C-alpha cells in the first residue's frame, strides 16, 4: 500500500511528536488487509497475544487470549473489543501497512495491532507513551482527543487497563475506511465504534525512556564486569578525619562508573542488539531444513530473492572504518566490503534480489545462510 496524498515534510515539521493530525483516506487505493474472521482465528492461536475488552455500565472487563471459537459466539450484546498484537508478523497484507511509514527509522517501529469492535466498543480514554497512526479498516469509529498527560495524570483503579480518571475531549472526528489519525505520545484519546464490524489498525512507534535505557544498558554491562575489578586506595592516603569520604576517593569511584558507561562503541553494539530483538523472541521461525554454503554456491546461477520475515528486525550502524555493524533479531554481524553493501541493501528493502556474486563470496554467503537458518529471511524465485 502507498500514500497518494501525504506531505511527509510538513507532517514531520508540524505534527510528529507535537500535535494530532487527521488525514482523510490518503491511500492510492484502500483495501481492508484482514477480515474479522481471520482476526478472530489469530486470537485463538497459542503464540498470538490477544485481549478481549468488554464494557458494562459499571465496569471494564478484560480477558486474555488465546480464545476458543465458542467464546466469540457468547459475547452477547454488550460493547466489546478484540485486540490482537503484532498481526503484521502473521499476515503479509497487514505487514505491508508499515511501508508508507518508513520515513520514520525502522528501529522505532513496534508493531501493527488490530482491533475489532462491536457497536459502542472501545478500550476507554487513555494515553500512550508512543506515537501511533490509527487507520480505519472497516466500519466507523469516533475518535476524541483531549489533554496532555504524564505519569502524574490520575488513573482509574484497574488491574489490566490504564484508564484516565478524567477525560476532557477537545476535538473529535468520525473515521471511515481508509481514514487515518496520528496521535503523538502523551495525548489523551478515546475511540468508540459506531455500528458493528469496526476494525482499526494501530501502527505503533516505540521510544525508549531514559530509565529503560539506563537499566538495560547497566544490566548488560554488569554481565561483562569482573568482581575482581575493585577500587584501590592511593599510596598516599592519610585521612585528616577518618569519617570523611575524600574528593579524591569520590573522583576515583565516579570514574570507575562513568568510564564504563561512556564506551560509545560498546553502547552502539548493545543498543543494536537490544532494539533489534524480536517482540516475541521465543517463537521459532527457523526452517525445517537449513542450508549450507555448498547449497548456496550451487544456487548462484539462479534468479533468487530474499524476503524478510515480518517478525524479524533489521538495523545497522555505520562504522568509521568503512564497514557496518549489522543487527538482526538481537545478533550482531560485523560486515565489510560486499557484506556491508548487502547488509545496507537488506535493511533498505523488505524483498531483495540476490546478486549472483554474493553467493560466491564467503562472507556474504555465510551471512545469508545464518539469516535463513535463523528464520529472518526466506528464499523466493524472481520468476
Automatic annotation (TrEMBL):
The keyword Ion transport does not apply. It comes from the Bacteria. One of its GO terms (molecular function) is 2-oxoglutarate-dependent dioxygenase activity. Keywords: Dioxygenase, Iron, Metal-binding, Oxidoreductase. It holds the Pfam family JmjC_2. Its cofactor is Fe(2+). Residues 93-222 form the JmjC domain. This is Cupin domain-containing protein.
